[in-house]
Design goal:
Structural class: mainly beta
Number of strands: 17
Strand order of the largest sheet: 2-1-3-4-7
Oligomer: single chain
Largest sheet: 5 strands, mixed
Distance between the termini: 70 Å
Radius of gyration: 25 Å
Order of helices and strands: EEEEEEEEEEEEEEEEE
CATH architecture of the largest domain: Sandwich
Helix content: under 10%
Shape: elongated
Strand content: over 45%
Number of domains: 2
CATH class of the largest domain: Mainly Beta
Length: 210
């Protein structure tokens, strides 16, 4: 007679032996992202009534504790937000499952949460430009759910092949999720790769134009 607690993290399955009849399955994302609500779900098998104690901590600092009472064998999910200071450090999720008989299962899982995931696309209207042409480009940032990031862009610079700042914009509103900018090339511009530098807070990217 035994139960089992399964941790499923993306495609990984970690079985653990329990202490009584029935079993449990815990699912969570392999890539926990700080500052973003994420779900941890418990599924019950051959169990009708259990209390589950969830604890999450970074080092010795506990930042999450919740007691969930599951009835009628349905299980359920909780929402967890990992704080920003926990990014890049080893965190621990601890689970205590208490059954009606008083027997319990204690299990834990270590993980390293990531900083907010953002991908920025800078797209120009042409791959190569000739002297005197107007250069148009767009900047769009999406998060891990492919939703646009509406945060203000603090700096955009156009830099020549000799590292001279040719054009600059500051504190650009991005309430629509996409920013369109343009600048005019001179009749005799410097030839080579030009750089569009984009910055939001400490995030920075440098796509190149020719």
């Amino acid at each position: 007679m035994f139960g089992a607690l399964l941790f499923i993290i993306a495609t990984s399955v970690l079985p653990c032996q329990g202490v009584s009849d029935g079993s449990y399955m815990l699912t969570m994302s392999r890539y926990m992202e700080v500052g973003k609500p994420q779900k941890i779900c418990m599924t019950l098998y051959n169990q009708t009534l259990v209390d589950v104690y969830y604890t999450m901590q970074s080092g010795n600092k506990r930042y999450f504790f919740q007691i969930q009472k599951y009835r009628k064998g349905k299980g359920g999910c909780i929402d967890v937000t990992v704080p920003a200071y926990a990014a890049g450090t080893r965190n621990r999720l601890s689970i205590s499952i208490v059954e009606p008989t008083g027997k319990f299962i204690d299990r834990s899982h270590d993980f390293v949460p990531s900083s907010p995931l953002r991908v920025t696309y800078i797209h120009s209207d042409k791959p190569i430009y000739k002297p005197g042409q107007l250069v148009r480009f767009r900047i769009m940032t999406v998060d891990s759910d492919l939703m646009p990031d509406l945060g203000k862009i603090s700096l955009v610079r156009v830099i020549t092949p000799t590292d001279v700042i040719m054009k600059q914009w500051r504190d650009i509103d991005n309430d629509k999720g996409i920013v369109t900018l343009e600048f005019q090339l001179a009749a005799e511009p410097l030839l080579g790769d030009w750089v569009i530098l984009w910055r939001r807070a400490v995030i920075r990217e440098e796509p190149r134009l020719k």
